[in-house]
From TrEMBL:
It is an enzyme of class 2 (transferase). It catalyses: propanoyl-CoA + phosphate = propanoyl phosphate + CoA. InterPro entries: PTAC. Involved in 1,2-propanediol (1,2-PD) degradation by catalyzing the conversion of propanoyl-CoA to propanoyl-phosphate. Pathway: Polyol metabolism; 1,2-propanediol degradation. The keyword Lipoprotein does not apply. This is Phosphate propanoyltransferase. Its EC number is 2.3.1.222. Keywords: Acyltransferase, Metal-binding, Transferase, Zinc. The keyword Ion transport does not apply. Pfam families: PTAC. Its cofactor is Zn(2+). Belongs to the PduL family. It comes from Paenibacillus agricola.
């Protein structure tokens, strides 16, 4: 049985270096609140407000380190509250997505695009993927057992020497399955 730990991903934002400076000040560097499951990734102490056409969320956690492009990852429920209709996409695929207003302690910016509902996915270290016969970008079926068992189809395999084994689902998906961070999922195919 191929078991994978689950990480539930709440709304969060990845910022570019340029946007960090615009929102927090010249030569500002994010501070680590806690390390995440993926090597080198962290939740920052800093947060921003995000403002859409119908609503806003204050204190949206920034994940670091800085990226080449700013990207806000939200659930479908979050999207309704903000008044947006972002597509389900893999991280980094932001072309043609909605934009949003970001507010930090020293600045406010509007990004023209970058809001997505992240596609559910599993990070595989290359060794794990080889051992299990899984290829990068392969679509998997994954079962979450427990109080509300559910089978997720179309789970994207993401393979890299820089990854640690972890399945990422958003809060809507976790709630539907009654799952929480630290639970396990079973890869069916």
């Amino acid at each position: 049985m191929k078991q994978v730990p689950i990480g539930v991903s709440a709304r969060h934002i990845h910022l570019s270096d340029w946007h960090i400076e615009q929102l927090f000040g010249h030569r500002y560097y994010l501070k680590v609140l806690k390390e995440l499951s993926q090597p080198g990734q962290f939740a920052a102490t800093e947060t921003v407000a995000v403002v859409g056409p119908k609503g806003r969320f204050d204190k949206v956690r920034i994940l670091g380190p800085a990226r080449s492009k700013t990207q806000l990852e939200i659930s479908r429920t979050d999207a309704f509250a903000l008044g947006l209709n972002p597509p389900v996409r893999e991280s980094g695929d932001t072309e043609g997505t909605p934009g949003i207003t970001l507010i930090g302690p020293v600045g406010e910016i509007v990004i023209a695009e970058g809001v997505i509902v992240a596609a559910r996915h599993i990070h595989f270290h290359t060794h794990d993927a080889i051992n299990w016969g899984i290829a990068d970008k392969q679509l998997l079926s994954v079962k979450i057992e427990g109080e509300r068992p559910l089978i997720f189809e179309g789970v994207v395999a993401r393979v890299s020497d820089n990854y640690a084994l972890d399945m990422h689902i958003d809060t809507d998906e976790a709630n539907a399955a009654g799952a929480k961070t630290g639970d396990n999922a079973i890869i069916l195919s």
